[in-house]
Amino acid sequence: MSLEFLLAWLAVMFPLIFSPGPANITFAAAGASLGIRRSLPLLAGIDIVFLMKALLVGFGFMSWLIHYPMVMTILQWTGAIYLIYLAYVFIKPNKEPGKTATKSVSIWQGMLLQSMNIKAWMIVITMFSVFAPKQEESNESSVITLIIMITILNFVTHFSWIAFGRTLSKALISDKNRNLQNKLFALSLLLVAVWLIADNPTAISLNAV
User: What is the pTM of this model?
Assistant: First the structure.
């Protein structure tokens, strides 16, 4: 792999992975509300499913999506509903004021969220349509290399969003400020849910898969 290829890949993929979306906003909210350690199961669940998506697309098992765009629409709406639920989870006040929240997110919740994350499908499809070798030149090693690269970028980016949320939470010492922060994160999740409903990801060409 050449340095030029790596820089070109980062120039395209870093903004896509790092930009705010369902997973990244949830990571920031989890980091702020739960801390880094209790957010790791969420990270593991989301990144495991992202890896599965990359494997499916990379090795051509998702070409059937071209013929069934309704599947993407169903995932789109289901994901939006789940984001609304997560917004409620993060904004829900503690029953005992003054105590540290004991709520947590599981690896299964992370896997569920990523399963319905339309943005992740589009990112993977974009990566392979732009950077995978042509079919006649394609080989397993090049596909695996791209999958490893995006997996590493995913982990670093997602951990950064968790750390950002945690840092912001520590900066806002008072309960009043933290409650405001939780409300802002919940609002962000709601806005992403609205975006999922309003947007039409199936308009992006799937012919490259």
Answer: 0.72
